[in-house]
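This part of the workshop introduces the protein records we will be handling. Getting from the letters to the tokens is the skill we practise here. The record below serves as our worked example for the rest of this section.

…
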Amino acid sequence: MREKLPPFPSHISITTINDFPYSEIINKNGTLVGRGLCFDFFHELMKKFNFTYTIVPPEKDVIGDSTTGMIKQLYKNEVDMAVSHIPIIPELAKYVDFSDAIELMDMTFLIPRPGTSATGTGLFAPFSERVWWAILFSIFIIGPAIYIIIILRSRLSKCEGSEKFTFFMCLWWAYGALVKQGTIVAPPGDSIRISFSFWWIYITILSSFYTANLTAFFTLNKFTLWINSIEDLLYWRYSWWIVEGRSVDTLIQHNDPAVQPLITSRKWGYGYTSTDYNMSFTNILKHADKRVFIVDRTVAMLAIQKDYINQTLKEIPDNFRCRYAISDKRVFQKLRGYAFPKKSILRNIMVAFENGFVEHYRNRMTSVSQVCPLDITMIERQLKVSDLYVTYKVCFYAYSAAGCLWALEVLSWLVLKFAKCGKFKGKLSKVGQIEDTEPRDYGASEPAVLSAKEGWPSRSPPPSYEMSTEAAAAGGFQNNTMSIQGREYDVVHEGSGARRLIPSKNSTSNLFQYLH
């Protein structure tokens, strides 16, 4: 048999704090009256149970603990009920009884709208940072891996010609395949061909995904924030602030595990509190300009909506009206409810009084459609200069490194020149050969020069394009034309039996004046 509940008192004393939009205290004709989402429902209870109430504000306008605020009043039985949303945590349950959970805290970050999305900018947007590091690692690992396979195959099968693939050639080949540049060098064995093919297939798939994701990035225009959780606040060392004595501050003061990153961040000096309990929307946005404001989502949406209306009345262009943004997801989760003194009869009567009531009133306060969402427009965006900022930095660092290496090469050449004191007529090249400085007849056969590695011939730089064609016309060389991957090359057969490929275009042939 169901136990009969005791009658509801005709008059009760309650306590509350100024925590917009849930509870506020106003003076109406000399009488303290409550308003907000909590009191909207509380007034419905008054009609149902036919009772009246008196508000007894706490000495300090905070949730508090056993020594201060609303919890102190309940703990000492000074009031019958706290009409405010209080976090349901074990530390406070030692002093008061909680109702059933009324809502799940919906806290968010209120920040100035950033200029770029957290998904990335421009050409680096399609892949995450981890993917880019993986690609860079694969480029550095594939070259040595191919080189090791070539060396092992050469020593096991004793195949001639495998040694022509040097370590630096393998590295350069891996990079060339990444930018879709082929090679005319044929691998000597099946194992090496399979390794080459694997890398080409990998590059093909990678470039396909990159192209598709880059197109989607500029088409869908998905906008995300840099911070979406309190862990991000701790990781990026962002400064933030909250209102003193409210739900978030209460959780921090009682070392609740749900806000452990905020506790650590405050110890590091990044957390601040404000005692402005009746803060206007204008002041809320001013504080958000300085630091990340951890606030209830309803308050943040109302502040943004108010600012948007003001910008519209000032006839600000549409693209500049949304100056602030909030995170889409809850930054953390915690249940909240009403509080009663220990063993209160009101707790048993109001055990299941709320069923979506607060959510209904919260939605009624805000507009049906969200004002200033993260994705303001869904039109195709154009590539901006800021999208190429990282690309400019990479090019600058690359050319700076190349300039430093060039300076070192010039310096080493000067040091070597003065060290030799003119004892040699030639100058020492990088591979250890003596390059003759006397004029050469490129119409005659070109002898091979022994390198520092005994037994392996290495040729000096090939003749220039003009000299090669003139010598060929004079009968020194035998040449014909060959098309490789859509490019025309002059095949020059030297008197020594060697064969060289020289691009038919004069501008392109200048790239082949040095030994690679």
